[in-house]
Amino acid sequence: AAGQWLKYRGHLDNISNNLLIGATNSENGQMNCVLNRVNGGEGKVPEVAQSYRDSGVGWVVVGEENYGEGSSREHAALEPRFLGGRAVLVKSFARIHETNLKK
């Protein structure tokens, strides 16, 4: 699993600033805009995820089909866990992304 690779994160801190920025939020129809349930404000996905991680709040991704499409880098598979994500619940994963999750 990806957990063992986190110790080799290199530039993962910077790369994780791209986490889910192109995903559409089903609650508000916007891209890269989510409600921060800790402070009640809205923010960009990476910033809210970092806030949750720093506050010890776990979070999950809920998506549709082909999650991770276009994310062939290993870092893309590590980002949710690095930022405190606990689970990714989707109908299916993109092939390369799924392979990277299993490393």
Description of the molecule:
This protein is α+β, with helices and mostly antiparallel strands and 103 residues long. Helix content is 30%, strand content 13%. It has helices spanning 12-15, 45-55, 74-82, 95-101; strands spanning 34-35, 42-43, 59-62, 85-89. The strands form two sheets. It has a two-stranded antiparallel sheet. Strands 3-4 form a two-stranded parallel sheet. Helix 3 (74-82) packs across helix 4 (95-101). It starts with 11 loop residues before the first helix and ends with a helix.
Offer a quick outline of the entry.
This protein has 103 residues and is α+β, with helices and mostly antiparallel strands. It has four helices and four strands; from the N terminus they run H-E-E-H-E-H-E-H.
Helix-strand blueprint:
Elements lengths: L11 H4 L18 E2 L6 E2 L1 H11 L3 E4 L11 H9 L2 E5 L5 H7 L2
Parallel strand pairs: 3-4
Antiparallel strand pairs: 1-2
Helix pairs in contact: 3-4
Task: Please state the CA-atom Rg, rounded to the nearest Å.
Answer: 13 Å
Write down the secondary-structure element order.
HEEHEHEH
Largest sheet: 2 strands, antiparallel
- Could you tell me the mean pLDDT? 86
Q: Which class do the helix and strand fractions yield?
A: alpha+beta
Count of runs of 4 or more consecutive helical residues: 4
- Total beta strands: 4
Helix content: 25-40%
Strand content: 5-15%
Oligomeric assembly: single chain
Order of strands side by side in the largest beta sheet?
1-2
Low-confidence stretches: none
Tell me the overall shape. globular
Distance between the termini: 5 Å
